[in-house]
Amino acid sequence: MMRAWILPTLLVLCGSAVAAGLVLGGSPGEAAAVLPVFVLLAGVNSPLVFPRSIGALEAERRSAADGRPVVYWRPGCKYCLRLRIRLGRSARRLHWVDIWRDPAGAATVRAANGGDETVPTVVVKGRPHTNPDPEWVRGQLPSSA
């Protein structure tokens, strides 16, 4: 779980250091502009942007019951972020599995990608799709959900 917060924490720390340097250098206005940028970058790269993750086994069980795709992702992945942002509100209708928090999810991704942990990997009806187009993923959602 801690690994998911390394990048956001580093971004906040770096932003704080840069802002402190600017304040000490006599540029508090620049510091006030720079720090929020780093905080925003930290937020975007944190697990907070994504819907709540569940375990791989639970996601597979739910997917079998409701037909919704399972998205395997990890914090800090720009392709996962792209998928999440482009899906918009539809993202909440998918089952999200953070592979850094769930070893079974990481194993599923490695099995689907020749041993690599390439994300996002979206499993639809038991078939994995690596880094699919967000519009295609949206089209895989059941219409009744």
Automatic annotation (TrEMBL):
Glutaredoxin domain span: 70-127
Transmembrane parts of this sequence: 29-50
Region Disordered, residue ranges: 126-145
Pfam families assigned: Glutaredoxin
Entry keyword Metal-binding: no
Record keywords, A-Z: Membrane, Signal, Transmembrane, Transmembrane helix
Keyword Signal recorded: yes
Gene3D superfamilies on file: Glutaredoxin
Signal peptide: 1-19
Protein name: Glutaredoxin domain-containing protein
Organism: Streptomyces glaucus
